[in-house]
Fold:
Amino acid sequence: MKEILFVGRSNVGKSTLIRKLTGKKLPAGKRPGVTRKPMKLPYQGLQITDMPGFGFMSGATEESQDAIKNNIVHYIEDNADNIALAVMVVNVSSFSEVVDRWNARNEIPVEVELFEFLHELDIDVVVAANKMDKVKEADRDGTLDGIGERLGMLPPWRQWIDIIVPVSAKKGDLGTLKEKMRERIERVRD
Ligand SMILES: Nc1nc2c(ncn2[C@@H]2O[C@H](COP(=O)(O)OP(=O)(O)OP(=O)(O)O)[C@@H](O)[C@H]2O)c(=O)[nH]1
Ligand SMILES: [Mg+2]
Structure:
């Protein structure tokens, strides 16, 4: 069965977003590292996969965080042909700061690496820019411009509305995400 994959750093709101999309209870919570293995849910004749997040997880050693990250990479490689769409979830209130911190250390930020990796595997990606409720109205365009830019999409972000979708899972504001998923599902079915 084809799947829609939700990926991203831990605690960005992947599981909360899927809850709002499906109405199904999935473990979600305050501390990073709630989802520890891929969780599958049926969705409109496809499957949604809620992946563990990469990066810091409370109560997990550095080794097990690395192991989880490797598992995510392998999962994507092994299932690439099956993945109709990847929804890369980011936390709008910290994304740019985290990416800049990695860049300043001359390291490739994991989220940038993941975005490129998905493209290399020819997987369609939508960036769900989550936790928009945390950003002041006046800062919203600038924040989204900054996120797009760090992923290689020059501002203004509105040029990229097919890829960048602002949402607030907490508020239940899913923007055009459902629509994007539906378009993709219809194309898979044809
Ligand atoms: N303010 C705000 N908080 C949110 C939003 N979406 C999720 N959260 C909160 O972020 C925290 C993490 O949510 P999860 O859905 O568990 O995040 P996750 O990405 O699945 O995390 P892992 O499974 O640990 O990788 C929870 O406390 C959520 O309530 C949002 O749109 N706005
Ligand atoms: Mg989760």
Summary: The pocket of magnesium ion (ligand 2) is lined by residues 14-15, 28, 34-35, 50 (CB under 6 Å). The beta strands are 3-7, 39-43, 46-50, 83-91, 125-130, 164-166. The mean pLDDT is 95. The longest strand covers residues 83-91.
